[in-house]
Design brief:
By secondary structure, the chain is an alpha+beta fold. The chain has a domain of 48 residues. Helix content is 25%, strand content 22%. The chain has one helix and three strands, in the order βαββ. The protein has a three-stranded antiparallel sheet with strand order 1-3-2, covered by helices on one side.
Length: 73
């Protein structure tokens, strides 16, 4: 027999965000120096925008040594 224990809401951390899209404001950016991670971030940004409506927009720019992901809207 199992005893059911109620979990405190603050103990639940169900979101494991790899990229800081939720915390970003317009004009904020982050740098990625690995092509595979940059491609993963591009896909994740697209999915994030799709889930959160059209008010979120990101762009990705090639920079010296890597890529920069920028929130534009």
């Amino acid at each position: 027999m199992f005893i059911l224990e109620k979990t405190q809401p603050e103990a639940l951390n169900l979101t494991r965000a790899t990229y800081p899209f939720q915390e970003m404001e317009v004009g904020d950016s982050f740098f990625i120096d690995n092509y595979r991670k940059a491609e993963s971030a591009r896909i994740a940004a697209f999915q994030f925008c799709k889930r959160n409506g059209n008010s979120w927009k990101f762009t990705m720019r090639k920079m010296e040594g890597g890529w920069r992901v920028i929130r534009v809207n």
